[in-house]
Amino acid sequence: MQTYRTLLFLVTGIPLGALWLGMLLAGWTLTVAFAITPLVIVILLGFSAATALAGLAERAIARDLLGAPGGRPGRTAKTTGYWQRGAVVLKAAVFWKTQVYLLARFLLGLPMAAIELALFAQGLFIATAPIHYRWLSQDGGERGLDFGIWLVDTLPEALLVAPVGLVLVIVAANLANPFAALWRGLSYALLGGTMTDVDTAGPSAADLRRALAIHATVYGVLNGFLVLIWALTTPGGYFWPIWTLLPLGLILAAHAWVTLLLVRPSVWPARLGRPLGIHAGISTLIVIFLTAIWAVTTPGEYFWPIWPALGLGIVVVLHLIIVLMTPDRSAMENRIEELTSTRAGAVDAQDAELRRIERDLHDGAQARLVALGMSLGMAEQRLDADPDAARQLLVEAKLGAREALEELRDLARGIHPPVLADRGLGAAVAALAARSPIEVSVSVVGERPPAAVESAAYFVTAEALANATKHANAQHVEIRILRRTDRLSVEVRDDGPGGADPSGAGLTGLRRRVEALDGRLIVNSPSGGPTVIQAELPCVS
Amino acid sequence: MRVVIAEDLALLRDGLSRLLRDNGFAVVAAVANGPDLVDSVIRGKPEVAIVDIRLPPTFSDEGLRAAIEIRKQAPDTAILVFSQYVEQTYATELLADGRGGVGYLLKDRVFDVAEFIEAVRRVGEGGTALDPQVVAQLFAHRRQGSRLDQLTARELQVLGLMAEGRSNAGIAESLVLTIGAIEKHIASIFTKLDLAVSESDHRRVLAVLAYLQRDDAPS
After folding, report:
1. B10, HSE (Cβ side, Cα atoms, 13 Å)
2. Residue A443: strand, helix, or coil
3. What are the CA-CA distances from residue A511 to residues A459, A537, B122, B215 (Å)?
4. Where in chain B does DSSP place strands (E)?
């Protein structure tokens, strides 16, 4: 379903993109033309309003078709001075950001829509070739599907190419997701979303991997197809497919390197920064590519790739020097971004927790105490007239009081179990295990961590254990908590059937709690099990 | 019987004092924190100290630590820990010295005044009173294939009440059976679990608890 919505989003981009481009061109032309007259302010204000309106429309479209985060767009400041109004418009980030998005809608959206539509149309066309190839007529008067070098004019040939069409359709459908992720990211960054939505915006590691897989598949299918044609038409002759294998291979290798850097940042020293990693990697790939071309065309002769290699090398070294000499700003910015988002997450999680406690108190203990008071009141009323009924009411009141206590005790334990504060993780987790209906083995090693870390570790364990009991239908759960010098590792492993949803409410709450302490929560729950939930919590003492 | 109460909430402290006085106890002191408790026990020499776990000044396990201190300084004073929550860890710590005169009950138990009074007396006379929740936790943790599976439902009930520290008469009363029938059940339980029959009620409780805490290999 999301694929259709994404497709719809891209298709709407064709007329809308053209419209926005026209609007931007008109707006800037007028602004520049009237720049030195007072009229420019009126034009700028109108332009700003039109931009804002277009931004609103695009936000609505992105939200409905892509599920992009909501939130409010930024606002321009208010001012009274005539000329200042123009300055306010030009200084407003929202004005520029929206325009960048509108422009992207045309410049990026159009090729994307073209790619998707072409892939779908071509794919369907080729996939159905066995049905219609015989009615197609080419320029030369021949009948069949013309691939330039190869004319498909028999049924076996048509059946041979049909899967290629299917692959194209599958590729088109799978491209929709990374495209949608990219646009979600753009709409988040440029049209404004709330910070708490940050983790749903932007492509995920899985999206990136999938995009690379699609790219590699396309590369493989295309080149396999060309090699097949070569083998069928001029076997043993000049191996011309090398001229698609190599350049497309360069692009694929560059894509793979960038994906690797994004998905596994540890392959490149963080201190050197991602741009340098991309730069150095692609430079290396280009040198390899040129060397391969040299080896294919003029092997053994003058090794000309040495010169571009030297040039690229010098640029990379210069880049490296610049990176090493400039103070590490991006790391700090990343850290600020991370802190902002985890703080928002922590506040959200805390808020949700308080609301849950309020609800539990309201529906539980409070209601029971009201009922208890009523029973006591009625007992008082009947004490003389009907002592037996009064006694019955008193028994009920006692029962109600006990249940209210029971509930309050559970609630208190859910907020912060007393035994955790008094005796530490070992005893608290052992108590959890003792209350659990399934078999739990517990190992807690090392000295006590700081209180906040201790309670986060406890709640990770409690939630994981509750999940294993409630959803996973597990027989055995293994809890291992290990205090190292600088951090606390928590691992909860069950033998259930797996398939836990890491974005479920419980796990999301835990993740926020852990991230607020600068820790990491990893949920690994492949279908078929086992489910392993790990938390790494830094301990700063 | 002379008692000392340590409870920081005035409402509960006064209520408990009244309840105990009404039932023929002499409340020699009612204090609100751990150090005062140790003092009043040493000076007042009560037979039982009723102690809340969470007390000032630390509001953590102050009461429990005071109780263990009293066990050392005034070994003749029985301790009844009376708390909002029960934890097996605390029960184990209280029972660690292997002597009688120990109790650990949830505050809810005061709802059944007669049973509560009985528990205070039992602890004061050197017996044991463990909250059914502590016992339930011990039972809940039994693995399948443990020897407890050989016990009948009635024998399991009797074992639970024994673990709480009740006497044969107490068990008989609560299950509405004759003392003779209870004795027969107990003999059968001890044979099935391979436990040595002990002289005092308290020894018996310790044996049963030790058995329940042991990680029983499937037989």
Report:
1. 0
2. strand
3. 11, 11, 49, 35
4. 2-6, 26-31, 48-51, 78-83, 102-106, 128-130
Which chain A residue has the Cα nearest residue B111?
A: A398
Nearest to B23 by CA among B144, B124, B153, B131: B124
Residue B110 amino acid letter: V
Largest CA distance in chain A: 119
Give the chain A residue whose CA is nearest to the CA of B65.
A422
| H helix intervals, A192-270 | 205-233, 242-263
| Contacts of A502 by beta carbon, 8 Å cutoff, 6+ apart | A511, A523, A525
- Considering only CA atoms, which of B48, B42, B3 is closest in space to residue B21? B3
Question: Among all residues of chain B, which has the CA nearest to that of A404?
Answer: B108
| Separation in Å, CA A75 to CA A31, A89, A103, A201, A465 | 21, 10, 20, 22, 46
CA A533 to chain centre: 20
Count of CB atoms within 10 A of residue B67's CB? 28
In sequence order, what are the beta bridge partners of B129?
Answer: B103
The closest alpha carbon to A494, from A426, A432, A428, A440, belongs to: A440
pTM of the full predicted structure?
Answer: 0.53
Q: Assign A196 a pLDDT band (cuts: 50, 70, 90).
A: very low
Is-contact A479 A442, C-beta < 8 A? yes
Residues A31, A93: Cα–Cα separation, whole Å = 18
Residue B190, number of CB atoms within 10 A of its CB: 19
**Residue B61, token pair as written in the block:** 């396990």
Q: What is the dihedral of CA A309, A312, A317, A318, to 10 degrees?
A: 150
Q: How many CB pairs under 8 A join A and B?
A: 45
The string of pLDDT tens digits covering residues B155-206 is: 888 988 988 988 888 899 989 999 999 999 988 888 888 887 776 777 788 8
B54/A contact by beta carbon, under 8 A: yes
What are the DSSP calls for A326-341, one per residue? S--HHHHHHHHHHHHH
Name A489's bridge partners: A482, A536
Report the C-alpha gap between A535 and A490 in whole angstroms.
5
Residue-wise pLDDT tens digits, A407-462 = 898 888 888 888 898 888 998 998 888 888 888 899 998 889 998 899 999 999 99
For the record, the structure tokens of B202 come out as 């308290």
Rounded to an integer, the average pLDDT of A370-393 is 89
**Which of chain A's residues have a Cβ under 8 Å away from the Cβ of B84?**
405, 409, 412
Judge contact between B154 and B185, C-beta under 8 A.
yes
